[in-house]
Amino acid sequence: MAGGDFHDTAEARVPEARERDLFARLPGQIAHAKAHARHFASSLADVDPASVTDRAALAAVPLLRKSDVVALQRADPPFGGLVADAGEAVRRIFVSPGPIYEPQGTGDDYWRLARALHAAGLRAGQLVLNAFAYHLTPAGMMLESGASALGCAVIPAGGGNTEQQVAVIADLRPDAYVGVPDFLKILLDKADETGADVSSLRHALVSGAALPGSLRAELQGRGVSVLQCYATADVGLIAYETMHDGAPVEGMVVDEEIIVEIVRPGTGDPVQAGEVGEVVLTVFNPLHPLIRFATGDLSAVLSAPSPCGRTNMRLRGWMGRADQTTKVRGMFVRPEQVADVAGRHPEILRARLVVSRADERDAMTLRCEIAAGADAGLADAIAQSLSDATKLRGAVELVSPGSLPNDGKVIDDTRPVE
Question: Is the pLDDT confidence value at 137 over 70?
C-alpha cells in the first residue's frame, strides 16, 4: 500500500498512462477468453484480439448481456461457458437471483474490494463488523476478502440478530461497519434504545441499497463517516466513493482493473460524454473473463477530475435499470427496436419512445431530436419505420436537439400502474 490517501500509486496515474496500460493488456485478455471459455470462443469468433487496442475497436466487439446469462447457464451448466478452463480452480460457487451461478477463484481479494474499503478509511489492524450476508450470496465474502487484504480482522455478523450484534459491537469495539445502509441505522437505533456503547464505529462502507442524503447526514451526525461502493457478484468492484476535506466527493471513482463504457440502451454504441446510458464492463479476470458485459445498470460519466486526487473516470453512481422492455397492445417493445428505427434515419440525433394511455387504449409517441432543416416528410418516414420495427402504429414528434431528458431512458412508460 502506498502511503497517504491512496490504496496504491495506480490511483493517481496520469489518465493517458492508465488508458495505455489497459488497452495494452486487453488483446491478451480477449485472446485468453477465446481460447479457454466456450461462450467467447463462439461469440468472439470473428474478433481479432490483436486489433482491439482502443475504445473505438472495443465498441465493435459483441456485447454479453447479463440478462442472457441465465439461459446460457441452463444450456451449458454450470457457468454457461463463461468461466475459463485454464487450470485455475473455482474456490466457491455463489447464487444470485435468476438463478445465476458465480465463481470465486483462489486469489486474495478476488473481487478487489480492498480499494473501496481503503477509500472509506479502513486501515491495517482495524476490526470490521461485516453485516453482509454469507449464505449463498457472495456479498459477505466479497467484503471480508477485501478487508483481509488490507490487514483488517472481520466479525462475520451477517444480517439480522440486531440485539446480539449491538452487544458484539459494545464488547469487541469494531472500528468499521460494512453492510446495507439501513441496517446500520437499525443497529445505532437499537444501541440508543438499550444504552449500549457503539461509539467505536467511525467508518462505514455500504452497498446493496439506496443511501439517501438524509440518511447519510443522520449517520454522519451520529459519528459514522459513510461511503458507498458499486459492486456486483459477477464483476466485483466497479466504482467507489472517496473523501476530500472530510466530505464525500460527488460520484464514484472507477476501479483500476476494469474498462467501463457507457452505451445507449439496446445497442453497444457509446453515448456522448455525460449522457446517461448502460454500464458495460470488460474485466481483467483470468477465471471469469467477461468481455463487454452489459450490466443492465444506468449511469453517466462525470467529466471533471475528482478533487480527492484519484485520476480515473468517475461515474454518477447507479441510476436505475437499462432494461426498459414493455408491452404495448399485447406486443413487447424493446430498446433495440427504438435503436433500429433511429439507425434507419441519420437525421435522428436521439430518440425516446413514450408509451401512454389515451381513450382507454395504449398509445406510442416516438420523440426524435432532429437538427434544423429536416425534410418535411421525415416524420411520416420515421412513423413507417416505427411500424415496421414494432408491428405497432405510433405517432412521431420531432423536437429540437437537447429537448429530451438525460436520464438514459429509451422507452418511457408513463401509463398508470393501476
Answer: yes
